[in-house]
Amino acid sequence: MNSTIETILAHKSVRKFKDEKLSGEQIETLVKSAQAASTSSMIQAYTIIGVTDPDKKAELAAIAGNQSYVEKNGHFFVFCADLYRHEVIGEKEGAEVTDSLESTEKFMVALIDAALAAQNASVAAESMGLGICYIGGIRNDLNAVSEVLQVPDRVIPLFGLAVGVPAEDNEVKPRRPSAHVYHENTYRSDKETVRRELEEYDRTVSEYYQERTSGRRTDTWSAQMARMLEGKKRMYMKEFIEKKKYDLK
Amino acid sequence: MNSTIETILAHKSVRKFKDEKLSGEQIETLVKSAQAASTSSMIQAYTIIGVTDPDKKAELAAIAGNQSYVEKNGHFFVFCADLYRHEVIGEKEGAEVTDSLESTEKFMVALIDAALAAQNASVAAESMGLGICYIGGIRNDLNAVSEVLQVPDRVIPLFGLAVGVPAEDNEVKPRRPSAHVYHENTYRSDKETVRRELEEYDRTVSEYYQERTSGRRTDTWSAQMARMLEGKKRMYMKEFIEKKKYDLK
Q: Pfam families, per this entry (chains A, B) (predicted)?
C-alpha cells in the first residue's frame, strides 16, 4: 500500500483544530489540487470561496447549526456550483446557452464537478497532515449563505470545507462492507439480500458504538438513517435551486 | 510537495489502456478508497457497479458515443447515486422516509456523496500508476444504462470510471488560473472582471492548442463552452431523474 492510499484510508473528519492559520502557499496548493480533478468537458463549473472574515465565519457557523469548527479552523472554504461565468460566456459569444444552463443535466454536472474538486483538496490537505471536515450544514439556509458570500444567480454554495491542524484524533468510522457497496454487472436489488446486508452492517455499527460508549449507545445504522430521513431536512431546497436558475428544464 | 499532491497535480485523463485487467485486490483497494471518503451524516448514498461482462461493456460504450475505452480498459466502474436501500430501511424501521428521499436536498447529497467516493478511487488508482477517465457519456441514455445494469428506482447511474494501465501519455490540460477560481469572502461577480478573466484564460487555451496542432486549432475556452452549451445535451434528464423518484420535492 502506498502513502496516498494510506492517507485516503485513514480519513476521519476533524472537528477541533489548533489555532494555526494555513499559509498562503498551503491554500494555493489546496486550490490547485482541487482544480486538477477531472471536469466534465473542461466545463470547470465551480468556484471556491475562502472565508477569512471573522464576522462572516460567525454567520456561517450559526447557519450550520452553531458548529464551532466553522469558525475555528486553519482555513474555511465554501465550494459552489457555478455556471455564472458560463452565462457571461453566452453573452460574450452571442450564444443561446440558457436552456443548457438551466437543465437538470448541467445541475448534475456542476455538483459533480465541485465535489470532485473538493475531494482532491481534502486528500491533498490530509496528505499534508491537516484535518478536514465537510460542512453540509451550510445548506440549512442557502439564502442566508448567498447573502453572506454575495453569490449571484447560477451559483449555489454546496458545502463548506473546514481545514486545519488537528487538535483531536478521531477513529475511522466503519463504512458499509465493500461487498455491499460493490456490485458486479447488475445491481443486486432483491429485498431479502438488502435486508440481510442491512442487518449485518447494523450489528457492526451497533458494536462500534457500544464499545466506545461502554454500552450507553446501541444505535444501528438503519435506526440512524430512519431517524434522519424522517426529519425532512431542508425541504426549501427545490425552491432555492430553481430561484438560482438551476434544474428547471 | 509530497507524493500524493504530485499524483493529484499530474492528473490527465487516459483514453487508451493496455490489455491488462486489474486484479481483485486492486479493485478492492479502489472500492475501499472510494468508501473512505466523507459522506453526509454517514448516509453512504451510492453504489459502485463493476462491469466485466463484454456484452454489457459494448452496450455501455455504444451509449457513451462509441468510446472504445469504455470497452477496452483494466476495469470499468459505474458510480450510482443510491437511495434504494434507504427506502428499504424506511420499510424495515416503519419510518416515513419518502418525502426526504424525494427531496432535492437528498438528490444533491447522493450526487455529492457518489462524486467524493469516485474521486478517492481515482486518486488511489493514479497513485498506483494506473490511468483513469470519467465517462459522463453514459448519461446520453440513462434509460438504456438502467436496463443494462438493472438498477431499480431510487438509483441513478451518474458516470462511468474507466481504469487501467495507460497506453498513452497525455499532457495536463491548463485549468483556469487559480486566482479566477478562488475568491475571498465574497464572490467577485462584476462582469467586467469576469470578462477580463475569460479573455486571459482564452489566450492560454488558444496558445495551448496552437502549440500542439502547429496552429491548426485555435479554439478559446469561451468558444468551446459556447458551442457545448448551445448543444442542449441530455435534455431528457429532468424527466428521467423524476421517474427514478429523485428531485421531486
A: Nitroreductase
